[in-house]
UniProtKB/TrEMBL annotation:
Its main location: nucleus. One of its GO terms (molecular function) is transcription coregulator activity. This is Mediator of RNA polymerase II transcription subunit 31. Residues 138-163 are annotated as: Disordered. PANTHER family: MEDIATOR OF RNA POLYMERASE II TRANSCRIPTION SUBUNIT 31 (PTHR13186). Belongs to the Mediator complex subunit 31 family. One of its GO terms (cellular component) is mediator complex. It comes from Leptotrombidium deliense.
Length: 163
């Protein structure tokens, strides 16, 4: 006997709406203050809600996770300012919410504040560090390409042998 959630009975519009609602909810999980809000109201103790969080694990599959990583392009007077990924930590928090210990700890405002501070530090320094590492890799790759191409070029002594 198979369990049917009734999703196959939904219209296309209902499926689209459910997708959007679940997408937005999973994205909200990236906010530790929202998690704290849920915990303080006892929502994270509700067995049905915990089951819902387990159900939402499907967002970790690549065909769904790609929707969590949509790029926002800020454009002012046709000038690209920045390319950002939205809600990059929501899946990590979705994983953490599977653990009772985390659900208890996030009830504390201090815990939520600490996590928020760590997020901000990560975002502040990760972009700089990643940019620096990418530049170093590009420079190294460029230097290796120049070395390899110069090794394949004949020197002037070899060129005179063909004259």
């Amino acid at each position: 006997m198979s369990f049917n959630c009734g999703y196959d009975l939904e219209t296309e519009d209902q499926q689209r709406l459910r997708f959007q609602v679940e997408l937005e909810f999973v994205q909200c999980l990236a906010n530790p203050n929202y998690l704290n809000f849920l915990a303080q109201r006892g929502i994270l103790k509700d067995k049905a809600f915990i089951n819902y969080l387990t159900y939402l694990q499907y967002w970790k599959r690549p065909e769904y996770a790609k929707f969590l990583n949509l790029r926002i392009i800020h454009n002012t007077d046709c000038c690209l300012i920045m390319n950002l990924y939205r809600y990059p930590m929501c899946l990590s928090f979705l994983d953490l919410l599977q653990y009772e210990h985390f659900r208890k700890e996030i009830t504390s405002g201090q815990c939520a504040k600490f996590i928020e501070d760590q997020q901000l530090l990560h975002w502040q320094f990760y972009i700089r560090k990643r940019t620096r590492l990418l530049q170093q890799a590009a420079s190294s790759s460029s230097a290796n390409n120049q070395e390899n191409s110069s090794q394949h070029l004949p020197n002037s002594h070899q060129m005179t042998a063909f004259k």
